[in-house]
């Protein structure tokens, strides 16, 4: 028994040490750029990220405007059910009391105010690729919305216990290199790459994960088992070479209109909601995404 | 016509199936609801492709052609209603079990699609080119609403 206790203490201490080592610190507020927020661009980020799909109003606020990210709707994942929180500027139940720095830390480091580690069901491993200016704009857009009072339920007990390991997991996930633009490519291609790798977080479903649930960069956007549902998520590589789309314009048209134009590959597996969000983007951004995706072999 | 449609592997499968279950294999395949509804989906897809070419400006609008395509889609949808008997799924089928969990909603979505196809057929019959885009997107939207909820992604 004594041996067991000793082993437990040792393991806990080791895990604690690793946890401390692996925990990225929060970004201090004075590291934020001097930037005049543009809520209009924030709206573009909101649509590119499809925030509303997970943060849509849950059953407790069934009467709320469906376009407001009031949160609380269940999100089923293989590790359990999450309730994405309220993103409206309600000070008590939403993020109205958050500073820009709080928001940037949640989005890029997975740390909520008070140092709480966030579960990666919230795809900050993609959002960390976003520009600070875009994040500040997104916060300004969220702040411009009508506040809704709605406290999303907390995660259940088995998941709550996992939270202690999150700092470690974040250390692993953040060890992967972040997205960087390619100076040899066009501005349009880089815009598409940014939207796909950053706000669009396409890799969260289209890139398979390794045994530790970290996205496998060597199989970037190559498709894999569906993380939320049965079936598989298709590969986004070689979309034109494999005859899925005729050319870049055809792919852009598919992203813009989806099955409303008869493209029946963009409705199932959750892509229908993604495509609806994409359809709200400026056409130049949709074309940029198509340009980038078409280049993936 | 039956033999023409079969590819070599499919023919081999049919042959093996035939050897296994006797001479009823071909008719069994014809009445398999999974196969029948996949054929219906393909037939609809073919018409949707022709209509999409018009909306994308790749082919010219023709009232009679639109009417005919929309009617064909409507007819296939009507047939498809009976092709989802409870539990008719398989590991390869893209039909999700939710179809039989909320059958009323599923059938309501089928009604919506039929209504949208009928509306598009009217647009064709009236030669109303100005109303075509919206009516076509209405039909596509009805397809999407059902597929979002009740169809698994294609394995590719």
Give me the Rg of chain A, rounded. Answer: 20 Å
- Biggest β-sheet description of chain B: none
Q: Greatest contact pair? A: A-B, 27 and 23 residues
Number of strands of chain B: 0
Q: Regions of chain B with pLDDT < 50 over 5+ consecutive residues? A: 1-6, 11-29
Structural class of chain B: mainly alpha
Q: How much of the polypeptide of chain B forms β-strand, as a percent range? A: under 5%
The biggest beta sheet of chain A, please? 2 strands, antiparallel
Q: What is the percent of helical residues of chain A? A: 40-55%
Count of runs of 4 or more consecutive helical residues of chain B: 8
Count of discrete alpha- or pi-helical segments spanning 4 or more residues of chain A:
13
The helix/strand class of chain A is mainly alpha
Q: Measure the end-to-end span of chain A.
A: 57 Å
| Spatial gap, N to C terminus of chain B | 29 Å
Low-confidence stretches of chain A: none
The chain-level mean pLDDT of chain A equals 91
Shape of chain A: globular
Secondary structure tally: strands of chain A: 6
Give the helices and strands of chain A as they follow along the chain: HHHEEHEEHHHHHHEEHHH
């Amino acid at each position: 028994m004594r041996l067991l206790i000793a082993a437990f203490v040792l393991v806990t201490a080791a895990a604690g040490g690793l946890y401390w080592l692996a925990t990225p610190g929060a970004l201090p507020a004075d590291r934020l750029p001097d930037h005049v927020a543009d809520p209009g661009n924030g709206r573009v980020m909101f649509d590119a990220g499809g925030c509303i799909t997970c943060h849509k109003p849950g059953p407790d606020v069934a009467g709320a405007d469906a376009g407001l990210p009031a949160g609380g709707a269940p999100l089923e994942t293989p590790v359990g059910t999450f309730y994405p929180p309220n993103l409206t500027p309600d000070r008590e139940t939403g993020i109205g009391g958050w500073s820009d720095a709080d928001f940037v830390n949640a989005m890029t480091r997975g740390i909520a105010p008070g140092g709480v580690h966030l579960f990666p069901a919230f795809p900050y491993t993609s959002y960390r690729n976003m520009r600070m200016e875009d994040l500040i704009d997104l916060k300004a857009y969220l702040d411009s919305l009508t506040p809704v009072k709605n406290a999303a339920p907390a995660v259940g007990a088995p998941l709550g216990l996992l939270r202690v390991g999150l700092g470690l997991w974040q250390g692993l996930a953040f060890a992967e290199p972040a997205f960087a633009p390619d100076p040899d490519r066009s501005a349009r291609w880089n815009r598409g790459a940014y939207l796909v790798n950053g706000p669009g977080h396409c890799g969260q479903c289209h890139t398979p994960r390794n045994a530790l649930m970290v996205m496998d960069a060597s199989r970037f956007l190559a498709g894999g088992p569906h993380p939320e549902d049965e079936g598989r998520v298709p590969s986004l590589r070689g979309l034109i070479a494999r005859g899925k789309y005729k050319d870049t314009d055809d792919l852009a048209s598919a992203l813009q209109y989806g099955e409303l134009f008869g493209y029946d590959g963009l409705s199932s597996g959750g892509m229908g909601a993604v495509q609806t969000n994409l359809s709200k983007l400026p056409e130049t951004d949709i074309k940029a995404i198509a340009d980038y995706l078409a280049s993936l072999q | 016509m039956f033999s023409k449609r079969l590819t070599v592997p499919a023919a081999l499968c049919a042959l093996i199936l035939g050897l296994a279950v006797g001479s009823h294999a071909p008719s069994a395949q014809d009445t398999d609801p999974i196969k029948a509804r996949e054929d219906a989906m393909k037939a609809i897809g073919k018409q949707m492709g022709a209509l999409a070419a018009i909306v994308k400006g790749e082919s010219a609008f023709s009232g009679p052609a639109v009417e005919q395509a929309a009617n064909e889609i409507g007819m296939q949808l009507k047939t498809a209603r009976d092709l989802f008997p409870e539990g008719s799924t398989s590991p390869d089928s893209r039909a999700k079990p939710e179809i039989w969990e909320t059958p009323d909603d599923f059938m309501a979505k089928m009604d919506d699609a039929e209504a949208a196809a009928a509306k598009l057929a009217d647009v064709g019959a009236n030669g109303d080119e100005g109303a075509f885009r919206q009516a076509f997107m209405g039909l596509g939207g009805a397809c999407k609403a059902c597929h979002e909820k009740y169809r698994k992604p294609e394995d590719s």
